[in-house]
Specification:
It is built from five helices and 41 strands. By secondary structure, it is mainly β. Helix 1 runs antiparallel to helix 2 and helix 2 packs across helix 4. It is elongated, with a radius of gyration of 27 Å.
Length: 561
């Protein structure tokens, strides 16, 4: 690392006039990034490290034991009210860097994992979470009553991130608004399980869990997870010493925090800085790795490709207020160019410290990537969506002919076809859709999604949707139920079936269970295995042929005690 950094600095010096003054700025940066890893590389979650001169701090209350005035000083984050790093000063050779290791307030991460903040140059963080306001979520222990899928969101349409066997204990840290799904502390940072599949010794404890999904979700913040950020405007004395904040979550883990009143959900690494506009100031957010989603007012902005960035206007208090608007910095001449340099050099400095991991490149497109410039898939016919890049994965509904979806990734599946990953987590085969927009550089996913849950070899009960007959009524919660619906009656001529193919759809409570037909010329049907949940449910089956459309259908309503 140090040899590579020295080589980089030598190349910079060779490319510039060799005067003592010209060497001052690169050497200051060199000293900072060469020492930060040694001074702050072993920082524990919940601590702050004084990295390089000069760093100023203010505390919630004055204490004699709070020493934070020299490089390598470390204090507890809970004590910190404000931290500011120094702008570049060539005469005194000052350029401040500080490292913060945040312990997430939601407790959704595995113990020991942390969010890393790297603050540099003319930048300030003001902690908006006082010690008496910090969230303290006590996990509720639950036991899987049966084999249960953990999903990325509180819905059966979401991807399966893991499967647990009956008897496994789970730590619940949140709930959805309806109280029928629970957030689980898991290594992915975002796992949900259906409540009916769990057993809990203390039912009253569930009511105390915070709502962490849906319209009524209340983010749970730890120290410095809600903060006010300020940074000097314009280019500093030299471009190698930018003003900004780099934030990184553990790889593959999503975390949520609030910056200047804007909620950001991050799944790896972003850079924050500020830009001067003709009529005010903008907060700039640039994606270095992974994905990020920002929400303010009724707006949601997704960053899905390395280098995607956007800027949002700030009000007179430096916050993302009710009238905040997106800004295309690429249209603001020198402001856009200066911001691009700031972000790129903040990224490069972060990479060279060795503290932040999996930063692959620092190429930035400082412009808002709206829907017209995103890469979009349009279904050329009715297309089945899958939970992974292969027909071996379960169905996730369909895209109707002409319907569009945003593409966020790609992968060559086990079947040899290229599959597109969509923004909601589903996959479609590339030869069944057309694409438009900016599609260069769509990230390739390196590993397959979790293997689908194998189809059960037997079921506890059967529901014939054609007649609504339950084999052993009633159906009980937790039972595996085999549902089927005949689409083509036995005896259909195979040649006629090939010339006029059948279709079918099976839905449960309005959600598509399957459109996959099984069988051949002697008869085709829809079939699915479902783990029953308490409540009243409606199952609908319908079928037809390409030439005649919908030929028949039936609806069954039943109650699971």
């Amino acid at each position: 690392m140090k040899q590579s950094l020295c080589l980089l600095v030598m190349l910079l010096l060779l490319a510039a006039p060799t005067t003592a003054q010209d060497d001052t700025c690169p050497s200051i940066v060199r000293d900072a990034v060469a020492t930060i890893g040694d001074r702050c590389g072993t920082l524990a979650p919940g601590q702050v490290c004084y990295g390089h001169t000069r760093v100023d701090a203010a505390f919630w209350e004055a204490r004699d034991d709070l020493a934070f005035s020299a490089p390598a000083d470390i204090i507890e984050l809970v004590d910190l009210k404000q931290i500011a790093t120094a702008p570049l000063d060539l005469d005194s050779r000052q350029w401040g860097i500080a490292v913060l290791s945040l312990r997430p307030g939601s407790l959704a991460l595995v113990p020991g994992q942390a969010i890393t903040f790297l603050l540099m140059g003319d930048a300030t963080l003001e902690n908006e979470v006082a010690p008496d306001r910090m969230s303290a979520v006590a996990p509720v222990t639950a036991t899987a009553a049966t084999r249960a899928n953990l999903r990325s969101r509180p819905t059966t349409e979401a991807n399966i991130v893991a499967t647990v066997e009956a008897g496994v204990d789970l730590a619940l840290v949140g709930a959805n608004a309806a109280g029928d799904w629970y957030e689980v502390r898991h290594e992915t940072g975002g796992a949900w399980v259906f409540g009916s599949l769990l057993g809990v010794s203390d039912e009253s404890a569930l009511a105390r869990l915070p709502v962490t999904a849906g319209e009524n979700a209340v983010p749970t913040y730890g120290a410095m997870q809600a903060f006010h950020f300020k940074a000097g405007l314009g280019l500093p004395a030299c471009e190698q010493a930018p003003n900004g904040l780099v934030v990184q979550s553990p790889e593959g883990v999503q975390v949520t925090f609030s910056i200047n009143g804007m909620q950001v959900t991050l799944g790896s690494t972003v850079v924050f800085t500020m830009a001067e506009l003709p009529s005010g100031t903008a907060l700039v957010v640039a994606l270095i790795d992974g994905t990020a989603t920002a929400q303010f007012g009724a707006n949601t902005v997704e960053l899905i490709r390395r280098g995607d960035a956007f800027a949002v206007t700030l009000d007179e208090n430096g916050r993302v207020g009710e009238n905040a608007a997106l800004v295309d910095l690429a249209q603001i001449g020198e402001t856009g160019d200066a911001t691009k340099l700031l972000v790129q050099n903040a990224c490069r400095n972060a990479k060279n410290t060795g503290i932040l991991e999996h930063i692959q490149a620092c190429s930035i497109r400082v412009e808002y990537q709206d829907e017209t410039s995103a890469c979009v898939a349009t279904a050329t016919t009715d297309v089945r969506r899958r939970s992974g890049p292969s027909t071996d994965y379960p169905l996730e509904g369909a895209l109707s002919a002409g319907e569009t979806a945003r593409i966020t990734g790609q992968m060559v599946g086990p079947d040899g076809f290229t599959w597109w990953a969509l923004s909601d987590g589903a996959w479609v085969r590339s030869d069944l859709v057309s694409i438009s927009g900016i599609c260069d550089g769509i990230p390739e996913q390196a590993t397959l999604p979790p293997t689908p849950t194998p189809r059960p070899v037997s079921a506890n009960n059967t529901l014939d949707v054609m007649t609504c007959r339950i084999r052993n009524p009633p159906i009980y919660a937790g039972q595996t139920v085999y549902m089927w619906y005949g689409v083509v009656t036995p005896g259909t001529d195979p040649a006629r079936l090939a010339a006029d193919p059948a279709y079918g759809i099976l839905t449960l409570d309005g959600q598509v269970l399957t459109t996959e037909l099984v069988g051949g010329g002697g008869g085709q049907a829809l079939e699915v295995y479902w783990v029953a949940t308490s409540g009243t449910h409606t199952v609908t089956g319908e079928g037809g042929t390409a030439s005649r459309g919908r030929v028949h259908g039936n609806t069954c309503t039943f109650t699971v005690p």
